[in-house]
Design a protein that fits this description.
The protein contains 6 helices and no strands. It is mainly α. The longest helix has about 60 residues.
Length: about 220
């Protein structure tokens, strides 16, 4: 029991170790960045002192430049330390991401193994064959439903006979009542010779009118 507890704590510590290391490195990096800004301010102040005293007090100007050089040296060391810490943080973060990615992939592999534990290719083939059979059965049922007529087909010959009887009945009614026959129908039933004679007379009258109009026009032009 105690071993389980201590073992669990040890595993948790190993899991939290990268996060703790990154946290410690970031705290140290923050401190170094503050020191970097402080040194830059000190350098700027010493540079100003040297410029202010370069003409009036060379000793003070020389001392200011000396302090500026010391600050520059400290700043170079600080910048190197900052770069090293940033590189360490990047390396630990990358390693931690790789470890978590690998763990996730292992979990995914275990899950897939569990899912496929009782599944074989033979089972897949049987299932697919059953699906194909059911699909074919569905198509056959659909074709049977759509191709089977619900009502009896209509006899086209019977329709034509009934229509002819109706036309003959209507014609008989017109013959029994001549007064209701339209004039156009009477003209249509006139012999071709009579119709031709009527057309000839109308054509002759039209030609006489054209001749009279032509003579009238010639007389006006002669005046």
């Amino acid at each position: 029991m105690w071993g389980t507890w201590f073992g669990g704590n040890s595993a948790q510590r190993r899991k939290d170790a990268p996060k703790k290391a990154i946290l410690d490195l970031r705290q140290q990096l923050d401190m170094l960045q503050k020191r970097e800004r402080h040194l830059e301010n000190q350098m700027a102040n010493e540079d100003k002192k040297a410029r202010d005293n370069v003409s009036t007090n060379k000793t003070a100007a020389r001392a200011a430049l000396k302090r500026k050089k010391q600050h520059e040296h400290s700043l170079e060391q600080t910048n190197g330390q900052i770069s090293m810490l940033e590189q360490q943080i990047y390396s630990i973060e990358s390693a931690n991401i790789n470890q978590e990615t690998l763990a996730a992939m292992k979990n995914a592999g275990a899950a897939m193994k569990t899912i496929h534990g009782k599944m074989t290719m033979e089972d897949v083939d049987v299932t697919m064959e059953q699906l194909r059979e059911q699909h074919e059965l569905t198509q056959e049922i659909g074709n049977a439903i759509t191709s089977m007529p619900i009502t009896e087909p209509i006899d086209e010959d019977e329709l034509e006979t009934e229509l002819a009887d109706m036309e003959q009945e209507k014609l008989n009614e017109r013959m029994l009542d001549p007064g209701t026959v339209p004039v156009a129908d009477n003209l249509g039933r006139m012999p071709n010779a009579v119709q031709g004679e009527g057309k000839s007379k109308a054509q002759a009258v039209e030609e006489d009118d054209e001749e009279a109009e032509l003579r009238k026009l010639q007389a006006e032009m002669a005046m």
